[in-house]
Write a structure and sequence with these properties.
Lipocalin, 8 strands, 4-stranded antiparallel beta sheet, 115 residues, 63% strand, mainly beta
């Protein structure tokens, strides 16, 4: 494992932990795993999100998706909005998603050639 990251998200309703780790050879990210768990009394609770991908040779140079950037509460309703960064050969894309009903639901994409 080349790199592992843990992030804690504190909202008025719940706390979450974002886990991302990747396997890299030299500068290429060969695979990654990203997940979000509810945090209950400092212990991992229910998993509400999970993505895993083995990258093909063309994509490995750029790296994978679901790099956590930040979270904020836009509506002040306690449901965090998450910002993810995705690397790729179509440019750098940021995805906004929202934790709603114990699931991560995509909202919209920004940046990149495809947007």
């Amino acid at each position: 494992m080349k790199q592992g990251n843990l992030y804690r998200i504190v909202s008025p309703k719940k706390e979450y932990v974002v886990v991302r780790y990747s396997i890299q050879i030299k500068a290429e990210e060969k695979s990654y795993h990203t997940s979000i768990y509810e945090l209950e009394n400092e212990s991992l609770g229910k998993k509400i999100f999970e993505k895993f991908e083995v990258l093909h040779n063309e994509q490995a140079f750029y790296g994978g998706k679901y790099h956590f950037i930040d979270a904020f509460d836009l509506d002040e309703d306690g449901a965090p909005i998450l910002i993810w960064h995705h690397n790729g050969y179509d440019g750098f894309v940021n995805e906004f998603s929202k934790v709603k009903n114990d699931k991560v639901e995509p909202m919209f994409l920004t940046g990149g050639d495809a947007c």
